[in-house]
């Protein structure tokens, strides 16, 4: 398993643009939000634009990625989908609640850790870090990696929200 993952990572480093995107295809599928941290916590609390429950991520050969998710607004789950355009390997531009630069920081068969630099419609900038998992729980090691990525971006630990405890949106 580690050899397969190492092969994918090395392939991403050395492959051409379209080929690298194809190497991400095995990571397409069902995912769920576990934790999100934000420099502006209002962005991730209920009714905030990044109070999101990811359900599906699909990497396409045309250098795009689709993300299906729910946003909680006044207690209701509202289904959304965004499409990201690849800027470079593992970096995407997504228009949602402003302009977003999304980076995949860590990728495994069980978890994705990513960061978002959001500039909202008012020009306010927010740093976010999230961890998605394939299962109902993530490992302590993956959680520690997530916390380190958040800390490295100046996000305090008290700005981390657990999304598994209150996820009552449809599973898809």
TrEMBL record:
<dbReference type="InterPro" id="IPR002448">
    <property type="entry name" value="OBP-like"/>
</dbReference>
<dbReference type="InterPro" id="IPR002345">
    <property type="entry name" value="Lipocalin"/>
</dbReference>
<comment type="similarity">
    <text>Belongs to the calycin superfamily. Lipocalin family.</text>
</comment>
<dbReference type="GO" id="GO:0005549">
    <property type="term" value="F:odorant binding"/>
</dbReference>
<keyword id="KW-0732">Signal</keyword>
<dbReference type="InterPro" id="IPR000566">
    <property type="entry name" value="Lipocln_cytosolic_FA-bd_dom"/>
</dbReference>
<feature type="signal peptide">
    <location>
        <begin position="1"/>
        <end position="20"/>
    </location>
</feature>
<dbReference type="Pfam" id="PF00061">
    <property type="entry name" value="Lipocalin"/>
</dbReference>
<feature type="region of interest" description="Disordered">
    <location>
        <begin position="149"/>
        <end position="172"/>
    </location>
</feature>
<dbReference type="InterPro" id="IPR012674">
    <property type="entry name" value="Calycin"/>
</dbReference>
<keyword id="KW-0813">Transport</keyword>
<protein>
    <recommendedName>
        <fullName>Lipocalin/cytosolic fatty-acid binding domain-containing protein</fullName>
    </recommendedName>
</protein>
<dbReference type="GO" id="GO:0036094">
    <property type="term" value="F:small molecule binding"/>
</dbReference>
<keyword id="KW-0964">Secreted</keyword>
<dbReference type="GO" id="GO:0005615">
    <property type="term" value="C:extracellular space"/>
</dbReference>
<feature type="domain" description="Lipocalin/cytosolic fatty-acid binding">
    <location>
        <begin position="28"/>
        <end position="165"/>
    </location>
</feature>
């Amino acid at each position: 398993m580690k050899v397969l993952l190492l092969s994918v990572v090395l392939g991403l480093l050395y492959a051409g643009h379209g080929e690298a995107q194809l190497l991400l295809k095995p990571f397409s599928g069902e995912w769920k939000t576990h934790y999100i941290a934000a420099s502006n916590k209002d962005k991730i609390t209920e009714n905030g634009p990044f109070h999101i429950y990811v359900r599906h991520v699909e990497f396409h050969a045309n250098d795009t990625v689709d993300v299906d998710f729910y946003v909680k607004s006044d207690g209701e789950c509202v289904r959304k989908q965004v499409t990201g355009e690849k800027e470079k390997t593992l970096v995407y531009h997504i228009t949602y609640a402003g302009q977003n630069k999304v980076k995949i920081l860590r990728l495994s068969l069980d978890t994705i850790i990513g960061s978002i630099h959001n500039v909202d419609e008012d020009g306010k900038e927010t740093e976010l870090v999230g961890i998605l998992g394939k299962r109902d729980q993530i490992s302590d090691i993956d959680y520690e990696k997530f916390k380190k990525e958040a800390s490295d971006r100046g996000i305090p630990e008290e700005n981390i929200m657990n999304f598994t405890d209150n996820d009552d949106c449809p599973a898809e």
